[in-house]
From TrEMBL:
Subunit structure as annotated in this protein's UniProt entry: Homodimer.
Gene coding for it: fabH3
One GO molecular-function entry: 3-oxoacyl-[acyl-carrier-protein] synthase activity
UniProt subcellular location: Cytoplasm
SUPFAM superfamilies given in the database record: Thiolase-like
UniProt name for this protein: Beta-ketoacyl-[acyl-carrier-protein] synthase III
Job description of the protein: Catalyzes the condensation reaction of fatty acid synthesis by the addition to an acyl acceptor of two carbons from malonyl-ACP. Catalyzes the first condensation reaction which initiates fatty acid synthesis and may therefore play a role in governing the total rate of fatty acid production. Possesses both acetoacetyl-ACP synthase and acetyl transacylase activities. Its substrate specificity determines the biosynthesis of branched-chain and/or straight-chain of fatty acids.
HAMAP family: FabH (MF_01815)
Predominant location: cytoplasm
Natural source organism: Promicromonospora soli
Residue ranges of the region described as ACP-binding: 255-259
Region Disordered, annotated ranges: 325-347
Enzyme class: transferase
């Protein structure tokens, strides 16, 4: 099926209403707004209320993406998440059910902050192979369910949210076409980002040490690996699409830290004003961060704009791909949609 390409058809995002500012965190943690802002670029993040799960946010983002794409059916649902609603079963089948999608195949992908690009790679391959014509790809994480609220090294960084896209079969040359998805993993660094207990290797027990119950990250090591892996993957993805960095309009990378985003941009030759950023408002939302950033900044992209997407996360894992921005077809968001439209990007 070489005459098929995979095309972005719709997008959406959902985030909890509750805004947690840096100043609020100063009250409960040994931290300051100045430290968080200067070290990460984050000013505020969203935290889900106790009744809101990853699946709930995924359903809302998925519904928006389908509406934007103008579809009521898709052939499969892929949900990237590290915080599924339950250890067993996967959350995607429940999400598909909530979306009224009948018995379509639905499964979760676990690649932490790279999860959305891993899920997108599978969706694109399914479309190219002809085994699906439309795929709903969602990245959703309720990271506050695994972050220790008393750990200042992680609690200030992560937020909750969901983003989604619909991918459909298209014809070569169409605006919206996704390029090759470059993926990689290095399991020798699996302990750099980890929730130590609660899995098969170390089941939860009353004696489980407090720190082992929560998400832990070796920040500085992850920082430098994130920069080099995302820069290399993005450069490879650009190369495979035959684009120079000058021809590329936007870098949309995993929203972990503004210093990381700026460094990736510098490494591949993309100026800061072309680096898409919403982490100042939403923090690091793990698998949700790329589709959320796309949805939040959709109004600032023009049809045909060239985007390079890149992510790095636990595993460790990484990925990158290219995308031309599609025509804004489909239906506009409903009044009830909660996707925030951030100020228009300028170049
Ligand atoms: O999403 C998956 C991928 N994740 C990432 O890409 C995250 C990558 N890492 C990072 O973004 C950064 O490493 C962090 C933001 C996590 C940390 O920033 P850093 O500049 O690497 O700080 P650090 O961990 O080297 O810590 C520097 C200092 C330490 O104090 P001492 O030992 O120098 O006295 C920390 O204890 O900052 C201290 N610190 C804090 N101080 C105030 C750590 N967290 C905080 C805090 N407030 N919240």
């Amino acid at each position: 099926m070489t005459d098929r390409v995979a095309v972005l058809a719709g997008w959406g995002a959902d985030a909890p209403d509750r805004i947690v500012t840096n100043s609020e965190l100063e009250n409960s943690l040994d931290t300051t707004d100045a430290w968080i802002t200067s070290r990460t670029g984050i000013h505020e993040r969203r935290w889900a209320d106790p009744g809101t799960s990853t699946g709930d946010m995924a359903v809302r983002a998925g519904r928006m993406a389908m509406r934007r794409a103008g579809v009521t059916r898709v052939d499969r649902v892929v949900l990237a998440t590290t915080t599924p609603d339950h250890t067993c079963p996967a959350t995607a089948p429940w999400v598909a059910h909530q979306l009224g999608l009948g018995t379509v195949p639905a499964y979760d992908v676990a690649a932490v902050c790279s999860g959305f690009l891993y899920a997108l790679a599978g969706a694109r391959e399914a479309v190219l192979a002809g085994s699906a014509d439309t795929v709903l790809v969602i990245g959703a994480d309720r990271f506050t369910s695994i972050v220790d609220p008393a750990d200042r090294s992680t609690a200030v960084i992560f937020g909750d949210g969901a983003g989604a896209v619909v991918i459909r079969a298209g014809t070569p040359g169409e605006a919206g076409t996704l390029g090759d998805v470059v993926l990689g993993a290095d399991g020798s660094q699996s302990d750099h980002i980890m929730v130590r207990a609660g899995g098969a290797r170390q089941p939860l027990a009353p004696s489980t040490p407090h720190g082992d119950r929560y998400f832990a990250m070796r920040g500085p090591e992850v920082f430098s690996a994130a920069v080099s892996r995302m820069a290399n993957a993005a450069a490879t993805a650009l190369d495979r699409s035959g684009w120079t960095t000058k021809e590329c309009d936007w870098l949309v990378a995993h929203q972990a830290n503004w210093r990381i985003l700026a460094a990736v941009g510098r490494a591949i030759g993309i100026d800061e004003d072309r680096v898409v950023c919403d982490l100042d408002r939403f923090g690091n939302t793990s698998a949700a961060s790329i589709p959320m950033a796309l949805a939040h900044h959709a109004a600032g992209f023009r049809t045909g704009d060239r985007l390079v997407l890149a992510a790095f996360g636990g595993g460790t894992t990484w990925g990158a791909t290219t995308l031309t921005w599609p025509e804004q077809t489909g239906r506009p968001p409903a009044a009830t949609d909660r996707t925030e439209v951030l100020p228009k990007l300028t170049r």
